[in-house]
Design goal:
Blueprint (H helix, E strand, L loop, with lengths): L2 E2 L2 E2 L10 H11 L16 H13 L12 H15 L9 E5 L2 H19 L7 E5 L4 H10 L2 E5 L9 H7 L4 E7 L11 H11 L2 E5 L7 H6 L16 E4 L12 E5 L2 H4 L5 E5 L2 E4 L10 H37 L4 E3 L7 E5 L4 H10 L5 E4 L2 E5 L7 H21 L11
Parallel strand pairs: 4-5, 4-6, 6-7, 7-8
Antiparallel strand pairs: 1-2, 3-9, 8-9, 10-11, 12-13, 13-15, 14-15
The protein binds pyridoxal-5'-phosphate (PLP).
Length: about 425
């Protein structure tokens, strides 16, 4: 018997158990909707989930390892990339790669910038990147893997990055500037045009992390929302990460990294030559992987089309309005203003961590922010009005109870 984080675990059984027993055990584990809705974000409505599942299941055992080589798979992956990049005001040679998530997309941006810098910034001996304080932790993680230093800069009073702070932090070892459109932290779009201008002036790689907004902001704009430009419209933006498994409503793991020009994509690829396996060159970081997510992404994007995404975006705005009004109507709670998503709210009478614990006690699985303390609502258009009403009722109950009762247990707010 082995142990896993101190717990005794069972060895592989001598004989297997029946399918019915498997189901019974899984039934015991499975989380309940709508309480687990936010932990399952961002699925989209039932019909979208069905389409995704259908394609995923059909290609679940096909190996994405071959996505650059087997024509049937390559063309589907390329169609996903073409559909995605078409939303970003691309240039003629803009292109991209399919990845396993925002973490890999951002890692790919960092890696390509590091390779590019060997040619374009040969004096940078100890490469660093500069980004606003709210840059996603996947940058810290990627930077650590790649031995790049990450320098973060102060925000303005609305939670957005500040171009002049970034300009001031650049030094001769800087290779890249990264900023977010929007940040997960505040749902705010950094001033990308100003920040990209700093990058352009300094001859640096500019990456935009649009993981959460990449497949939402284009449709918000088409519906008339005025957003700060953040995509390839903005001179100087060289790469953009955008998560299909967030507001693209595709099945995890699925994300994309886009390159302004195919010339930049060359820095992404790693080819191991003269290996006993021959030349080993794959689409990205992973080796063998399920092709299910690629086919599911193709199916969802093709099924929805622009019209479908616009419909879901309208629904999202409706939900945002309902939840904002509902949260703000509860004494002591205030929803933050966001440019895009996700939603966050804070409690200014009871401690936010106590309200968070109150929601956990009601059975909701919630995410939050630690600094400053806030509770995150990662809604998607699959969240029904009934679910929203139940959530608001539970939130009101929990908050009123704390305000009435003095001491309350504070939860351990977590993002992950
Ligand atoms: C979600 C997110 C990421 C990381 O994405 P994963 O898919 O969890 O790896 C990166 N940046 C932002 C802004 C995000 O919202």
């Amino acid at each position: 018997m082995g142990t896993l984080e101190g717990k005794v675990v069972k060895p592989l059984p001598k004989t297997g158990i029946s399918v019915d027993e498997i189901k019974a055990q899984l039934d015991k584990i499975e989380l309940r909707d709508p309480y687990a809705h936010f932990a399952r974000a961002f699925r989209g409505p039932k019909d979208v989930q069905e389409v995704a599942k259908l394609a995923f299941e059909r290609f679940i055992s096909d190996n994405g390892f071959f996505s650059m080589y087997l024509p049937y798979m390559q063309s589907i992956e390329q169609e996903v990339i073409a559909m995605g990049v078409s939303l970003l005001h691309p240039e003629k040679n803009s292109t991209g790669n399919f990845t396993s998530g925002g973490t890999e997309s951002n890692f790919s941006g960092l890696h390509a910038a590091k390779e590019w810098a060997k040619v374009h910034k040969p004096k940078a001996k100890k490469p660093n990147i500069v980004a606003p304080f709210t840059i996603h932790p996947s940058f810290q993680k990627g930077a650590q893997y790649l031995d790049i230093e990450l320098i973060t800069t102060d925000l303005d009073e609305n939670g957005r990055g500040v171009a002049k702070n970034i300009a001031a932090a650049i030094n001769e070892d800087t290779i890249m500037i990264a900023a977010s459109a929007p940040t997960w932290h505040f749902g705010r779009i950094d001033p990308i045009p100003e920040i990209a201008a700093v990058a352009k002036d300094a001859g640096l790689w500019m990456h935009v992390d649009a993981c959460v907004g990449g497949y939402l902001s284009p449709f918000l704009e088409k519906l008339g929302e005025k957003l700060t430009p953040w995509d390839f419209r903005v001179p100087g933006v060289m790469s953009i990460s955008a998560d299909l498994h967030k507001y693209g409503y595709c099945l995890k793991p699925a994300s994309t990294i886009y390159w302004r020009d195919a010339e930049l994509q060359k820095y992404h690829y790693v080819a191991i030559e003269d290996h006993f396996l021959g030349t080993y060159k794959l689409a990205g970081f992973s080796g063998s992987r399920s092709a299910g997510p690629i086919f599911a992404a193709w199916a969802v994007m093709s099924y929805l089309g622009e019209e479908g995404y616009l419909r879901l975006t309208r629904r999202l705005l409706e939900l945002k309005k309902k939840l904002t009004a509902g949260v703000n109507a509860i004494e002591g709670l205030r929803m933050w203003d966001v440019d895009v998503m996700p939603l966050h709210f804070q409690s200014h009478k009871a401690p936010t961590a106590a309200v968070y614990q109150g929601l956990l006690d009601k059975g909701w699985i919630m995410l939050g922010l630690v600094n400053p303390e806030a509770i995150t609502i990662p809604i998607d258009p699959g969240f029904s009005d009934e679910a929203a009403d139940l959530f608001l009722k539970d939130l009101r109950d929990a908050t009123e109870k704390i305000l009435a009762g003095g001491e309350a247990k504070k939860g351990d707010i977590r993002y992950s």
